[in-house]
Target: Transcriptional regulator
Amino acid sequence: MHLRKDHAELNIPALRQFIRSNPLGLLTTAITSPSSSFPLLQSTHIPFILDVDDESSQTELGRLRGHMARQNPQSKALVEALGDPSSPRPGSNVLAQDVLIVFTSPVQHYITTNFYSETMSGDKKTAPTWNYSAVQVYGRARIHYDADAPATADFLMKQLADLSRMGETGIMGYSGAEAWTVADAPSSYVERSRRYIIGLEISMHRLEGKVKMSQELKPRDREGVVRGLKALRTETAEKMAVLVEERAALKLRPRVDAIES
Model:
């Protein structure tokens, strides 16, 4: 990720919150297939659970949990790589290569130079751009793929329960009997479904965030961006205008607020 000083988000708790606010990540792998059955690069959108041992920590990155369909070609490439006799650790369930996961905010918008009242009235040394925010994770993945192993069953059942809880209560706001749980489905259906997926547990060793919200602009140009976005009267433009104002305010005080979600 290209991180210029104005756009870099260095606050680890803020980056963790961004992931929780935008849990649908894009998992990308680069695996050399020993059988040449799969492409080198593969990506899948996966909703992730973030586990952190110490929520008050300013430095802990945490671990990501997710699952994929066993029939997904990327899943097949992962399992094949783990069983490759030529791999550094044949038979291990930890992938030798790093994986990349990208989390992106749904609030993004084109920024026209017509918004720049100060620069465009002078030397005009500027160009249109795009405002957005994203987080990139690099880590080592442990793959839970042995459907008959008790540890795999335990991991997947916890993953499914935690993910449904996050969606039902954290996203939908349901509580009590309103919230769907894994226990609401027939046990035979759950067991059959569990055998059709594999689990992912990713230990993060690098966490980067970028918040590109017109922070680098001159004050009058940034004010023009806010006015211009609000004048569009669309939901996305209104949200972007608010984020531009919030990020501008952060330049004037210590960066302790959470990254925009």
About this structure: The longest strand covers residues 129-144. Residues 8-110+127-147+195-215 form a domain with the Pnp Oxidase; Chain A fold (CATH 2.30.110.10). The beta strands are 8-9, 24-30, 41-47, 49-51, 63-69, 94-104, 109-111, 129-144, 197-212.
